[in-house]
Structures are given as structure tokens and as C-alpha cells.
């Protein structure tokens, strides 16, 4: 027989040791996978929270916006009011221009009348002398 190697391990012990080591490695891999899954789930939840906040903000913004039909109706009403004010102002301006012309022509009438009076007085005083 051959001499036994002092470091020799029976095959059964060797296989059992290898299986225990593999079990530890598999358990470590499973724990790491579970931790990674938990972290990924948390990250996904945070991302969806952000998405939900964004959706809520868009919903709030859309509630604050005026529908196109209401906007068009309001603009048409404002246009009508502006046109009414414009017509009233045009009428007032035309009246003022007319009164200025009438005032200017009556002023000329007073000037001509005063000039005639002055000429008549001059003629009276010059002939009377």
C-alpha cells in the first residue's frame, strides 16, 4: 500500500465541504438579489411618485385654463364693447369739431362786426370834425 497523504481528505468530506461552500455562495447571491430587488422597487416607487406629482400638476394647470369657446365668447364681448366706446368717442369728437367750426365762424363774425364798428366810429368822428 501507499503511504497516506497527511493532507488527504476523504472524498465524501471534500464533496460535503464543497456543497456547503456552494450553499453559502448561493445564499449570498439570493440575499444580494433580494436586496437589489428591494432597492429597485424603492427607486421605482419614487419615480412613480414623481410621475404622479407631475400628472397632478398638469391636471391642476388644465383646470385653470379657459376653454377655447369661453375665450372666444369673452373676446367677442370685449370687441363689441370696444367698438361701442369707439363709436361714442367718434361721435363726441365729431361734435367737438363741429362746435369748434361754429365757434370759429362766429368768432370771425364778431371780428368783422367789431372791425365794422371801429370803421363806423372812425368815419363818424372824422366827418364830424
Provide a descriptive summary of the structure in words.
The protein has 2 domains: 9-65; 68-129. The protein starts with 10 loop residues before the first helix and ends with a helix. The protein has 129 residues and is an all-alpha fold. It has helices at 11-64, 68-128.
Features:
single chain; 129 residues; mainly alpha
Question: Which helices and strands appear, and what pairs or packs with what?
Answer:
Layout (H helix, E strand, L loop, with lengths): L10 H54 L3 H61 L1
Major β-sheet annotation = none
Number of helices: 2
Mean pLDDT: 85
Number of domains: 2
Short précis:
The protein folds into two domains: 9-65; 68-129. The chain has two helices and no strands. It has helices spanning 11-64, 68-128.
Amino acid at each position: 500500500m501507499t503511504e497516506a497523504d497527511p493532507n488527504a481528505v476523504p472524498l465524501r468530506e471534500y464533496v460535503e465541504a464543497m456543497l456547503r461552500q456552494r450553499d453559502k455562495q448561493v445564499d449570498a447571491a439570493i440575499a444580494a438579489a433580494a436586496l437589489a430587488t428591494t432597492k429597485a422597487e424603492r427607486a421605482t416607487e419614487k419615480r412613480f411618485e414623481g410621475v404622479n406629482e407631475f400628472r397632478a400638476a398638469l391636471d391642476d394647470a388644465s383646470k385653470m385654463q379657459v376653454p377655447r369657446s369661453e375665450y372666444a365668447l369673452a373676446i367677442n364681448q370685449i370687441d363689441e364693447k370696444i367698438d361701442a366706446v369707439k363709436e361714442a368717442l367718434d361721435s363726441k369728437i365729431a361734435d367737438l369739431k363741429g362746435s369748434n367750426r361754429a365757434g370759429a365762424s362766429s368768432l370771425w363774425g364778431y371780428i368783422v362786426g367789431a372791425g365794422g364798428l371801429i370803421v363806423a366810429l372812425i368815419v363818424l368822428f372824422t366827418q364830424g370834425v
